[in-house]
Design brief:
This protein has 366 residues and is of the alpha/beta class. It has two domains: 234 residues, Aspartate Aminotransferase, domain 2 (3-Layer(aba) Sandwich), CATH 3.40.640.10; 122 residues, Alpha-Beta Complex (Aspartate Aminotransferase, domain 1). The chain contains 13 helices and 15 strands. Strand 10 and strand 11 form a beta hairpin. Helix 3 packs parallel to helix 8 and helix 9 packs parallel to helix 13. The longest helix has 19 residues.
Length: 366
Amino acid sequence: MIPFGDIKRQYLSIKDELDKHLLNVLGSGMYILGDQVKQFENSFANYCGKKYGVGVNSGTDALILALKLCNVKPGDEVITVSFTAIPTISAIYAIDAKPVFVDIGDNYTMDTSQIENNITDKTKVILPVHLYGNASDMDPIVEIANKYNLKIIEDCAQSHGTMYKGNKVPISGLGCFSFYPSKNLGAFGDGGMIVTDDIELYEKLILMRNYGQKQRYYQVVEGINSRLDEIQAAILNLKLKYLDKWNSRRSEIAKMYFEGLKDNKDVVLPLDAENSDQVFHLFVIRHRDREGLMNYLTSKGVQTLIHYPIPNHLQEYYLKNFDRRFNLPKTEEYSKEILSLPMFPELTDEEVAEIIRFINAYSSLK
């Protein structure tokens, strides 16, 4: 069987080094907000080209804290996309704000031409999602945010190392990352981080992620318990040095897919966006007969997934709790056709070739 992902393969590739590293942390007796967290916050922020990083316990919490930091209140509006993972929108719900959805372009990220028409006096934040490892077009987003005095929060959960016009995301405002195990840089559990260049935002985030305490038992701002723990930070510290190598391997696999499927007229390949150097967190194709292809690949021992089958504006929770309806033709069309192929650094050339052969063979059956 060819799995969609195999985290164990990655662990085995660095097992001896990682086991030794973890034993040192366990022996230190420091498990919450210690040296490993501080080191990783500094290292990852520097990797992103930012001055400051604040480790939290998930990518969702990173978004929630960022929204709170931008003073988003109940009833305020956040412009974002429906074509994203549920956690993006769950963070907006968590503070009783309202998502305002715009459609996507052909690279599955925000159609920036639709933003201005959706701005109201309740709009506080624009929240672009760098989906599948591909950057949103940030220049017009920054221009619009400046024009209307709006904040920007970038959902970078799938874009560790993604470049936009020569710079790593996030480009502006606050960048929110997830370190869920399957991410390009993944922990062995949940974890997240917010990166920024703003010292004032950084200092407030440090308080907010630890109950709002300036020192133990002395609370000065509203806060929650959302701390990246030492063990996960230690894992991420070690894995960070391999991230560029692993991303390069993802690009190699993507090139094999592009080359092997370029003549298949049934397959729509990912758009190679002009301004984005993507890191291929996922390799997502479109196919008119998605279920047929998916079932065929399953019968051949190839695991595939759909990211994501139901857009957020059509989810049961949204339809029950919100009156506003949105016209998002590309979001709805593409969600019926997308299919994620296996994509992880330890995937072998032989496995990729086999996947390509099966996809092309399915087309020849028609």
